[in-house]
Amino acid sequence: MDPINNPYAPGAGQRPPELAGRDEQLRTFEVVLERIAKGRPERSIVLTGLRGVGKTVLLNTLRSAAVRRGWGSGKFEARPDQGLRRPVSAALHTAVRELGHPSSEDVEQVLGVIKSFALRDAAPNAKIRDRWQPGIDVPAVPGRADSGDIEIDLVEVLTDVGGLAQDVGKGVAIFIDEIQDLRAEDVSAVCAACHEISQNGLPVIVVGAGLPHVPAVFSASKSYSERLFRYSRIDRLDPEAATQALQAPAEDENAEWDADALAAMYDATGGYPYFIQAYGKVAWDLAPRSPITVEDVRMAAPEAEAELAIGFFGSRFERATPGEREYLRAMADLAYDSSEGDQPVEAVPTSDVAKHLNRKPQSLSPARDALMKKGLIYSGERGQIAFTVPHFGRYLRAQTA
To answer: Where does the Cytochrome c domain start and stop, copy by copy (predicted)?
Structure first.
């Protein structure tokens, strides 16, 4: 098969040639856009799921849907070492420009508020050279969104941006990737802002994407957060959607997969979109001709797994310290030891990890907390821990075999 025409695209956040299995989320978002445009109340949206299930791809697709409707939009990736002011101000700056409001005076007023919001990122007594400049070419508007309290200021800046959108019968959507990495005070601010703009009927929504424990993070910040957001769990594809993800791109290149090859691909990938693209790319390159057969898939498996071991699993494993790696391996052993059949359990008790390592639970808290901050594991419920990366346990066991 000609590698130049290979349609599969294994990349971080890279849109696959066929976005299969996400029709429900796309339809839901279209309804949300329509309702908000008509002044109807709607909740903001948070996509949750493991790494490699296509959350970022879907987030970008939803943003494209908003842009097609003439909405203002902005996107940023949350980072634990950065507050909200800089990325939010940049996202809102983009959104305001996209709205195309006819009154330059009104636009400049709102941009001035955004600038005021952004400049408050620095301490009031900071030197000019230490102040971050947001690149907004209008004077800052003092006394609005610059109190220094991120919760108050975010409400004010989104209220003003929402009013601008309302003037032109459009909306504004702010897209936040890796939303679990927001600081605690910023999570509280996002919840408060979404609550306020919802109560005021303003056409502004937040669309986030993050790991499975995001609902717990938000609930711990504000008890009413479960009523503010529509949480949508993004999971692996079912066999039908996985077949579509493989077959449709192949057919566009006048090629196909036979039925046994598709079944073998599903067994190898578990239906995870990133793995489907990774295995599909290698199988295409190694197959001598169409249709791609089960033997082609078997030949491709070692190379695909080697690439995943380096780029998908290995890069994450290398970030862990020796003590943290010991914790990860214990989790993997317990997940498989507790399994029924070939599929490991998703979560294991932290107390069992301590027993497996013959350690006191308290002594392992630093390693567990560090792994959570690095985004390698998460806690969906108290006393339980799980990998954020699918098949990570299998990779770890293969490393020690």
So the answer is: 166-332
Here the tokens at position 336 are: 């498989």
* Furthest-apart CA atoms within the chain: distance in Å: 69
Instruction: Write out the DSSP string of 171-228.
Output: -EEEEEESGGGS-HHHHHHHHHHHHHHHHTT-SEEEEEEE-TTHHHHHHHH-TTHHHH
The residue written with tokens 């279209």 in the block is 30
Whole-angstrom distance, CA of residue 382 vs CA of residue 211: 16
Rounded distance, CA 391 to CA 384, Å?
18
**Token duo for residue 167:** 């003037």
Reading phi first (left if > 0) and then psi (alpha if -120 to 50, else beta), residue 293 is in beta
Q: Is the C-alpha dihedral spanning 80, 82, 87, 89 positive or negative?
A: positive
Of 337, 330, 394, residue with least CA distance to 367: 330
Q: Residue 349: what are its φ and ψ, rounded to 5°?
A: -70, 140
Angle between helices 23-37 and 55-68 (to 10 degrees): 40
Give, for 87, the enclosing helix (H) or strand (E): helix 85-99
The burial of 199, by beta-carbon neighbours within 10 Å (0-12 exposed, 13-18 middle, 19 or more buried), is given as exposed
Alpha helices in 289-349 (DSSP H): 294-308, 315-317, 322-337
Q: Is 70 left (phi over 0), alpha (psi -120 to 50) or beta?
A: left
Residues 6+ apart with CB under 8 A from 75: 59, 60, 63, 91, 174, 175, 176, 177
Q: Other C-beta atoms within 10 Å of 340: how many?
A: 7
275-321: pLDDT as tens digits: 999 999 999 999 999 999 999 999 999 999 999 998 889 888 999 99
**291-303 confidence digits (pLDDT tens):** 999 999 999 999 9
69 to 139, 173, 205: CA distances (angstroms): 30, 11, 14
Are 52 and 391 within 8 A, CB to CB? no
Number of other residues whose CB lies within 10 A of the CB of residue 373: 11
Q: Identify the DSSP state of 340.
A: B
